[in-house]
Amino acid sequence: MTSMVLSNSGLLSKFRGSMIGGLIGDCLGAPFEGDSPISKRILGNYISNLLSGGSIQILPYTDDTCMTLSTASSLIEHKKVDAKDLAKKYVSEFFSQPKRGYGYHVITVFNSLKESNFEDVFLPAKMQFNGSGSYGNGAAMRSAPVALFGHNKTDESFKIDIEECSHVTHTHPNGVNGAILQSYAVKTALKCDVSKEFDPLDFISQLQKKMETIETKESKSPYCESLKKIKDIYLLNQEDISAEEIAEYLGNHVSAHKSVPTAIYSFLRGMKPLSEFESSNPFIRTIYFAISVGGDTDTIASMAGSIAGAYYGIESIPDELQNRCELIEEVRKLADKLYITFGDVTS
């Protein structure tokens, strides 16, 4: 995989692709959340119907998109990760639309933040689960804007930004490190030259190298272990492993360490044709496979869509899918603002 200096138009396409890709994964994945196994026939017909224009239904977004857009708005407004502003925006968005699928534990954090008048924006998250913090995927699912914001930053500065954003709701190492891995996946995909031959082993090795420096401080290394599992799939030529087997092998849970690696694998899997779903579009194949794994389908597909969109760019995402998503214009505008504010291709 080759790093590149992108043209202005190429980078803008990738910013748009990542943000809109995340929205599409969220909207398309939401109706299947909690299902396992997923009916391939129903999923295939569902996506095919959307692509053919056979449905005029506008698909609603979930808390994944709510928090992603709040993150993007805060970054654009402050030009840095401002934890207090993030907390205020997350809480305000939740109380304005509480029925977007927020989990019980993050609602508890939001209530505590509001009651304390945001005196210590990290304390409510620290207090969860007897002080161990949450290891859910809520920090990872909203991290794409931070990855775009930090695409030219050093590893240390990038990591600090992700940690600060995560700590508003998640303090367990698995929750925070999941957000770091997801962000690195988006950032690495953003830097790839799509016109060059893609090497999945090199992509995984780059992420592995990043996570090895982070998980050496922990007693366990779930992300390095999962990345090794993904690498083994390619080394052993097992790319035809089923979605059900991936759910068992990597996970499909709300826990970050059982969903972020699955999203990354879904991006890689979408690069080649799928036996059970015919499509020449690798972005569509990514979303299809991410949903087919089952479980936390909206979040896994949203994270996979953010990575795939950052790699392929907006041109890979059919208008038929974009126009079926609630809030598409708002997401497009925020993607453009992120690019205008942070898309410096000369750095």
Automatic annotation (TrEMBL):
Reactions accelerated catalytically:
alpha-NAD(+) + H2O = ADP-D-ribose + nicotinamide + H(+)
Free-text cofactor note: Binds 2 magnesium ions per subunit.
Q: What is its EC number?
A: 3.2.1.143
Has UniProt tagged this entry with the keyword Nucleus? yes
The alphabetized UniProt keywords are: Chromosome, Cytoplasm, DNA damage, DNA repair, Hydrolase, Magnesium, Metal-binding, Mitochondrion, Nucleus
**Which cellular component, as a GO term, is one annotated location?**
nucleus
List the InterPro entries hit by this protein, alphabetically.
Answer: ADP-ribosylglycohydrolase (IPR050792), Ribosyl_crysJ1 (IPR005502), Ribosyl_crysJ1_sf (IPR036705)
Q: Name the Gene3D superfamilies on file.
A: ADP-ribosylation/Crystallin J1 (1.10.4080.10)
UniProt: Mg(2+) binding residues: 62-64, 296, 298-299
Per the record, the similarity remark reads: Belongs to the ADP-ribosylglycohydrolase family.
**What is the protein named?**
ADP-ribosylhydrolase ARH3
UniProt organism field: Trichonephila clavata
